[in-house]
# Entry
Amino acid sequence: MSSSEKYDPRAFPPVAVTVDVVVFTIREKTLRVLLINRGVEPFRGEWALPGGFLKPDENLDEAAARELAEETGVTEESVYLEQLGSYGSPDRDPRMRVVTVAYWAICGDLPDPVGGGDAADAMLIPVSMIEQDEISLAFDHREIVRDALQRAMRSLESPLVAAKFCPPQFTISELRNVYEAAWNRSIDQGNFQRKIRANRMFMNVSAQIGASGPRGGRPASLWSIRDAGPDGEDADGSRDSEENEAVTRKGKARKR
Amino acid sequence: MSSSEKYDPRAFPPVAVTVDVVVFTIREKTLRVLLINRGVEPFRGEWALPGGFLKPDENLDEAAARELAEETGVTEESVYLEQLGSYGSPDRDPRMRVVTVAYWAICGDLPDPVGGGDAADAMLIPVSMIEQDEISLAFDHREIVRDALQRAMRSLESPLVAAKFCPPQFTISELRNVYEAAWNRSIDQGNFQRKIRANRMFMNVSAQIGASGPRGGRPASLWSIRDAGPDGEDADGSRDSEENEAVTRKGKARKR
DNA sequence: CCAAAAGTGTTTACCCTACACCCATGT
DNA sequence: ACATGGGTGTAGGGTAAACACTTTTGG
# Structure
């Protein structure tokens, strides 16, 4: 059989493939998910994840990036985007058999007035509302969001992922605020300081100094992610790729 | 739009959905992957992952379990099966647009004479041969196997997952052999012993005693995975769900 | 001077590695 | 008796949690 020989698509069970994206961001010290109010049937008027059909000439990652850009205006830069998994129960979409490939994303700088495409509206809902089932979602999107949340929480153990919630240059406190929002508990400031400073993937942008707080306080230095060199080698020639770089969740929760 | 209203499948890009499974097992102290020699075009005669088309009335997990059973005869019991991710480059299959949902599995008791369906033959290839590119695989299956391997290695940090390579009842050495095969290095026997004994998810089947080695040696006690109770409570009433249960890869590798 | 946030020092507890040592069995 | 593998004891190093303390700013 030559590669130009094609199958009749109707010989296979008709399946549509969509891509949905769980976009996380932080607003008002709270971890939130972007939801779109559906403007079309089915589930018209209900809240759903941004997403759409896979186009003929794009791969899955490209489709996810496109949907993310269409719905948020955010470009692929400064965004963490990763595949989560696929969902394909036979009856998950009343129209026809639809398998969706779910992605999850971190957007640090999400523009506030989101919305577009066929979406009548958009909102950033706290993840706690979804965890506690205080809102109903279209399709099986609640399950997808819960899985995404679980994955995101694990990925946050890497401070490099957590930094995606921050602007390109950030203070260590800003990074700490990401963890305090995601875990909803306080973190020892001093220990966190050391943890980040010890991590070779973070670089002190020593020239710049961040603004001090609204009611005073010592100004913090700015940091950024060290862009991986050609082979990940450090400046001093040492290469310890497998360090203890995770931020753990142990210890007692203190008042916030 | 009522839920009985259907879309015309041809209104969407024609996509076929398949399911592929990366089956890991251990043979001769070596971690191996099950490959099938393709009996049909495309890639006829080349090695590929077991898999097939998603059927109309099954969900993704069911399709993966079915393919696994068809190709290995192994039932869902005593098998660890988990979704890995989806692969959908537009040109990954020369016939038509195919999105595959990949799964990965651990089979402890894989029957030796595998094969069936449209497969002319089957083999268990050491993962090292795939890592070192010593064999060519059909489609993008090499990429899938590498991703599965990476995922499996991380999952092995949980000894409960590693135990899936063992029979329902096993000695601590048998479990240790799983790590030594997967990591290709030796592990301190005494420390490993303590690690497993300290893990409340493992239960000593005290009545039974495993056979001693071929050339003598103290017989080992048999262990099994504690089936999760209604709320995961321990016998003594304590409940420490978040323990240090991971098996880490640190320390120097000793001779095997 | 005081409040507030950044950053450093220090103590302590815990875990894990390495390795020594004893136990139980087959030959 | 000895080899072999099962199982325990234990000392040392490293890391991280907790918290005290110093530094630098705004009001």
